[in-house]
Amino acid sequence: MSARDMLDAAAGTVSVLTAGDVMLDRYWFGEVRRISPEAPVPVLRVFDVANRAGGAANVALNVTALGAGSLLLGAVGDDESGGILRDTVHRHGIKHALPAILDSTTVKLRLVARNQQLLRADFESGPGGLASATTAHSRWREKFSAMCADADAVIFSDYGKGALARRGELGAMLGEAKAAGKLTLVDPSGGDFSRYQGADLLTPNLGELEQAAGACDDDEAIAKAAAGLIERHGFGGVLVTLSERGMMMVRPGGGVLHSPARAREVFDVSGAGDTVAAVAATLAAAGADDRAVLEAANAAAAIVVGKVGTAVATADEVKAALPPGR
What we know:
This protein is an alpha/beta fold. The protein has a single domain (about 5-320), classed as Ribokinase (UDP-N-acetylmuramoyl-L-alanine:D-glutamate ligase, 3-Layer(aba) Sandwich), CATH 3.40.1190.
């Protein structure tokens, strides 16, 4: 079936659980007309403020935008940002569990003028919090088991903020999901991919792949590096996002598919990996083949980088962006 057909098939029939690091993406939009007299820096006159769900929460929103059922498990702090994030997710009809068991909610503040970022400021408590709170983490795991039972696929969205950092627990959750017959996808962080042993699909960008497997000078080297990771860690496949060069799917035994990038003006790449993970998991859970997954994920990524800030790609937008016959 084509990617368009699979998008229709997934709507209302597939449910995806996203578990991992949630965050609040906050934007201050304005204009710059002068340089500060206090320091050689631009002065941003702010005229609008926006709060958007980021990290694993943005993955969940992208699943919803495709018309699939979306569940979200994360953790926030007992603070205003955590409340805003919960409200944002709730408004989109996502079934969620976001307990306030972190020291503080992760916030990324971006100052934007004329669709260009001037500065990003991160507020985070580091990889502690949930990862070091035994009782809180036990309750979090119980919620995972309950929500996993209601999902067809599980996305582990790892931003290295602590939700998936407790030693051995990520492997246990992966094993639990696989034993229950769920498709497992990991959007990885860092260079230690052994933490994701046995996952059905990984969706690293090129930088993450090189961090895990060494520098890759061309497509042949990329495919070889991905194949090595598959063999070493028992992955079912690796989908590598290559920015302006498109995407590549590598499967065990040397199977390689490549989808070139869609020509489009790029405004903001933040959150594009979230969109790719959401599309890949949703379509794969619906039974799509690798070609349909690649085409849809590539089209969706091109859509979100053409928007300002953390964004989603709707099913209708993706279908409109697909090549004829795809």
